[in-house]
Fold this protein.
Amino acid sequence: MRLAGVVVLYNPDNSVAGNINSYIGQLDILYVVDNSDLKNRALISRLLQNEKVCYIDNHGNKGIAKAFNIGAENAIKQNCDFLLTMDQDSRASENMMERLIEFISKHDTKQLGIVSAYHKQPYQTKCYYLKKSELIAYVMSSGNLLNLSAYRKCGKFLEKFFIDMVDYEYCLRLHMMGYQVIRVNDAVLFHKEGDVYSKNGVLKALHSPVRTYYYVRNYLYVRKKYKEKFPDIIKTMQNNCIIAARTNLIYGGQRLKRILYIIRAFIDYGAGRYGKA
């Protein structure tokens, strides 16, 4: 089984090299797609010392979906079977890759769409799960082994989304085509999702105002496309969308700007305007 990986860079600092080193050893090739406007030359030079790294300058921020598609298409040309999708801030635990690979080796790959790691946030002291692995509705994009055979059948990640909901939409598309999305709970990924704000001991993930725009706009598209086929999943997504928007409005600051971005999300969705805000 040949494994490729793709990691998306956006204005990274030098610590990203350590994250990449946590998983590159189990890959045959890693596509480093750079969406940065200002390149970190020192980091690039350091990464290219590893012969497994293929650096691709995306000439500006074209979005995470475009970067993933670049990785997938190149991996297919290299006859790879699975593609590990990563963001720059995620780090694999010591046994994450081995456990994902072990799961794949013991199951029929014809049914597998994505085999995902368990995402552990910095504020979590323990991983909470009852089963070693489980079928799930959707996963975040980092720490996933994507079956490239499924990718060829289901098509590309939606580049018009730019960022946010790219991963969720793709998981639903995999389900539509009869593929499974599975999380291997003892394969742990250390993942940072936005900034963390503590209120009365409750931790909240916060994002910039424009990220709220992308999340709401793209959710509206996903709801329309999949609500009849997956009503329960869409209901859960809707609740999460409302909670995320409300949390960011209350705790994230720049309230007026966030409100205006949410309004714009509805307007742009209605007008069919996508891409970068």
Summary: The radius of gyration is 18 Å. The longest helix spans residues 231-251.
